[in-house]
Amino acid sequence: MKLLAFDTSTEQMSIAVTREIDGTQQLWQYSGAGGARASSHLIPEIERLLAQAGLSLQELDAICFGQGPGSFTGLRTACSVAQGLGFGAGRPLLPVDSLLSVAEEARYQYAAHDSQCRVLALLDARMDEMYAAQYAYSQGQWMQTQDFFLLNPESLSAHLQSSAGPGGLALAGNVFVPYGARLNLAADVPCWTALPAAAAMLRLAPALLAAGQALDAANALPRYIRDKVAQTTAERAQAKAALSALTLSSPISNHP
Q: Can you give the pTM of this predicted structure?
């Protein structure tokens, strides 16, 4: 298949193109800074990769984009670019859940030889919250076993206990550094650092297309899990005061 995929749901922008040449599926990919840069760099990098692959937009079987959850600005950027390319080239769009691509990228990096795994995908949602969804992988296919939800770092351990099941549950995402000890994870819980990757989206695309998930450009929309995008001034002041109180009340040890 001839496919383009891109994701700008986090601070990393990921783009990939694939096509078959002489019976071998080949891949061209780019990863770079996202965020505010995504709106100005996404289209030029897409054009560059398509040129490297010797493809035009009109030759693509589908255009895959990360529909979220994730950064509100990033999701709007990805969706608007996908719609523009889809309308202009007359190509179908394939929305891919960003948390599913996290799960697939983590599986590919850390458990590629396992025929089965269960993954709780987590992305930093800022404001002391994480986007989450749970997936199960078996015999080459993914199934979502728990719908998208928001979770604060201190609630993760309790959630894992309530989600216990056969085969164990691995955690995958970008939350382990920003939230660290607040996650209160047991030492034996697998933690796989991963971001939504365009190459992962391309691996997911054939099954999603076969399942009829492709859409006309007019029907492709971002996936939002919450409406609130920032804390109020009062909430920021309250959080700062709580952090200061916690720092002052913590015992200080002179021992190394």
A: 0.86
